[in-house]
């Protein structure tokens, strides 16, 4: 709660509120958008009016949006009280790992938000254990790499890293984050492919003539400049036809067809995937878990119960994410150390790291592990990116996913899960140093990891607990994460 003094204003601009409460303007805007606090307007005469009281749009246009100090202060006080109650419910809570005050911007800093990923941990958690348990030059392994959070954070700490994941698309996301880019070339490529997509998506034929944005053009010029496109952009893929509007499909297929012309093809693939994820025919508030396509207007909970329509075009998302991708990679390029890393698409239960450690890491062994294995029966990791697998024809390894959602949470499923996770750590153990430190982040409400440690030949020497209250999905209930600190037994 902020202290009230003689200089405290009753109404604050969004910037003033952000500075006073040590938040971002986006944080304050979010509270207004989702009706946590009211929005007011300060008109020229100094009068303060509620947003709902102003009917004349011209008055709003010339007025200054403001928020109430008392409402904000009361809201954050309630949040603090809620957080205190949550902490009381978590035995052995490590208060250094709460991260309650982190904004979404901080939790998804630089390349960590290059592509959405259900089930990732926040970078600050990785940062905490890297800083306290490892040193510059160490080799950090994540055998359940996901979207590459551990590898990115290891690089910022001048550490080398290895990531292993059974999902080929996960490896593509991680590679897009970790690759070293020529920023000038990158900017040229991602802006050029966007412009070409805009031009070609507006191309049409009328009475045998070629038109772009209703202007007649020479067909041979278009074919020479942008490549020959002799047919309409259609696909027989049932998934794509089900989940995307006609114009969206046309734009995504044009963009996809242009990718082979560029150097940074993997990044462009990830950028397109991020865009089509947002352009699926579903509710704006239901991108995480889909049910059935939506074709008609609907009441949108995300946009103040306005009537929204399913997305009909991809170009808006392509433009937004093109700019965002370039900004994030630039930010990361300023702080990264460019240490050696290796990304491996394989099953961690069977992978052999001998050759990689010999050739790329000078025969050194691994100093430690920071990882978050899949939770039993919670997520289908391939399915969450179905749109990417379907559009790009990426090979799937669904049967090798450990603990995937469709396997359920029965006693039999849990037993299989324990055996599989133990196989991973048992296999990896031979590549670790004798004094290696291993950190496993897990929502272990079923108390599986003590047995997993025994099965795989490790000893749990410490266990931290932390409540998780901020997630990508709309679910509000918190859960507890356990961070197990293990050492390999000789």
Walkthrough of the structure:
With 490 residues, the chain is an alpha/beta fold. The protein has 3 domains: 11-80, no CATH class; 102-173 and 339-488, Vaccinia Virus protein VP39 (Rossmann fold, 3-Layer(aba) Sandwich); 183-329, no CATH class. The chain is 40% helix and 17% strand. The protein is built from 18 helices and 16 strands. The strands form 4 sheets. The chain has a 7-stranded mixed sheet, with helices on both faces. A hairpin with a 5-residue loop joins strand 10 (298-300) and strand 11. Helix 6 (123-133) packs across helix 7 (149-156), helix 9 (183-201) crosses helix 12 (246-258) and helix 17 packs across helix 18. It starts with 10 loop residues before the first strand and ends with a strand. The model is unreliable at 224-231 (pLDDT under 50).
Summarize the structure.
The chain has 490 residues and is of the alpha/beta class. The protein has helices spanning 14-20, 25-33, 57-62, 69-88, 104-107, 123-133, 149-156, 168-178, 183-201, 219-226, 238-243, 246-258, 265-278, 315-335, 354-360, 386-392, 411-429, 449-456, and strands at 11-13, 40-42, 48-50, 64-68, 139-142, 160-165, 203-206, 209-212, 215-217, 298-300, 306-308, 341-345, 366-371, 432-442, 458-468, 479-488.
